[in-house]
Amino acid sequence: MLDGKTILVTGASKGIGQSIARELAEQGARVVAHYGSDRAGAAAAMEGVPGDRAILLQGDLATKSGADRMFEEALSLTGGLDGFVNNAAVMHFSGGIDDSDEDWDRVWEETFQVNVFAASRLLRAAVRHFRKRGGGEIVGISSWAAQKGVTNPQTIGYAASKAAFKAALQTVATGYARDGIHTYIIAPGVVDTKMSRDFAESQGGRKVVEDRLTMGEFVPPSDIAALAAFCLSGRCRHLSGATLDVNGASYVR
């Protein structure tokens, strides 16, 4: 379904990003698998993929110049992209209302740097690139936290960052539709990744969280990957701009 397409996936070394990168490669895409420090994780995502369809790319999204440099290198290595998946994100379990001013500032600055500032610079670069190419597909991994907030108020910064980037994605969807740029927002619930497992520990353990979920289980990362691949196929253009909830009916809008 994705034969001949070249797609950049950020945060491909673990969790949702790793699953997406692997799924895209299995469907025939050439994948640029971005990682911050975990090269082994990105390599694991591309294990078994022919060398000409697997590109590992390091980039530090915690720095102001890291996003620009990484995207430019992706273009240099590939000659052009057909799709972009913005998945990389951080979540801290501090920086809440009752924490110190210093902790609040540090957490919010780090969270917004990766989840909003770097993500938005990559989004801008992708839009500019796709306009020159006559179109492209963008998938942004958001969160149900962007719609309903978070149950753990210590992660308030994460919820705010995901809502901010969701608005940026929606703006691109409406503003550049006639340029052939299609933008899809995937909003997972509790996915079976390290980030969610760490979150569960802050809530009293995995079973406590699972008991709150309608299906009684975390969302498999493969569900997110399959949906991302479908969006990137270009077979659902008029779904552009939609926020796609993947939470096992635990949060129905």
UniProtKB/TrEMBL annotation:
Belongs to the short-chain dehydrogenases/reductases (SDR) family. This is SDR family oxidoreductase. One of its GO terms (molecular function) is oxidoreductase activity. The lineage of its organism: Bacteria, Pseudomonadati, Pseudomonadota, Alphaproteobacteria, Rhodobacterales. It comes from the Bacteria. It comes from Histidinibacterium aquaticum. Keywords: Oxidoreductase. PANTHER family: OXIDOREDUCTASE, SHORT-CHAIN DEHYDROGENASE/REDUCTASE FAMILY (AFU_ORTHOLOGUE AFUA_5G02870), SHORT-CHAIN DEHYDROGENASE_REDUCTASE FAMILY PROTEIN. The keyword Oxidoreductase applies. CDD domains: SDR_c (cd05233). InterPro entries: NAD(P)-bd_dom_sf, SDR_fam.
